[in-house]
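pinging the channel bc i need a second pair of eyes. not urgent but kinda urgent?? the chain im working w is below, pasted from the shared doc
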Amino acid sequence: MDLVLAARPLGEVACARWARMRPSAPPSGPRRATVDAYVEQARARPGETPEAVFDRVRSRLLGYDIFPPRLVGYAICPGGPVHVGAIIVQRLRLGPLACEMAVRVIDVWDTRAEGVAEAGFQYVTLRGHPECGIASFGARLEPNRTVTVRIDVRSRPGLLLTRVGRPVARRAQQRLTRAALARLCRPDRPS
């Protein structure tokens, strides 16, 4: 984790710095991890079909439009939609400063078959991230025509700071994940 000015541009320099980092956990997640699962049904705009709801959530997921931008900034490296191997540099804003960290995308899915559609991705934290672990973000158009959004996290503290401050770090992690779930499930994009 690096402490940087929040106004500092997220670009090639940050991408290059984090691209050299190795994953902090195996693809199955760290041993002795805390496991969290968050599930919520996505809400539709008036007159919006279940397929349109799924497409809206899918677009947010694969564009990494997940966390409220007032809290978390990001850059996908190289640019474009989320893809296997991409580095996502994240900045958690703390007033004029930001905690910069990064993750690597290890899986992406986007399938449709017989009335069911699924889209999402999984990433692993890179060394230097406050957490050591993996997270999956996904949406599913169910056979009953509802759209379910799910976030699964397997993690443990990744830095001495997050081990010592575990209660505070854990609450912050849970709040950010709940904010991401709410942002994905709401029909409009709150900041």
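so The chain has four helices and eight strands. and The mean pLDDT is 92. — does that match what u expected or am i reading it wrong
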